[in-house]
Specification:
Blueprint lengths: L3 H11 L7 E2 H6 L1 H11 L4 H8 L6 E2 L1 H14 L1
Antiparallel strand pairs: 1-2
The structure holds calcium ion (CA) (2 copies).
The site of one calcium ion has 7 residues, from strand 1.
Length: 77
């Protein structure tokens, strides 16, 4: 189980340029970290992560989108 606080810290770590959203660029800047999020959300690549969890399709993942994605993944497990 992932708490909201853990998610926030994961999100902040992933958001390498600190603009408040995780873009493909952030994920490529931190390949090790994208591996962590991949294991949390059952995706295999940054591109797949973005496609699957960018629910409003603006090209970046907000904290709300990440939270929703992880909650969905947790419900499936
Ligand atoms: Ca960012
Ligand atoms: Ca988005």
């Amino acid at each position: 189980m992932t708490t909201e606080q853990e998610l926030k810290s994961l999100f902040n770590t992933l958001d390498t340029d600190k603009d408040g959203k995780v873009s493909l660029n952030d994920l490529f800047l931190s390949p090790g970290l994208s591996a962590i999020i991949s294991s949390e959300t059952n995706t295999t690549s940054p591109q797949e992560l973005l496609v699957q969890y960018d629910s409003d399709e603006d090209g970046s993942i907000t904290f709300e989108e990440l939270k929703e994605a992880v909650e969905k993944a947790s419900n499936l497990n």
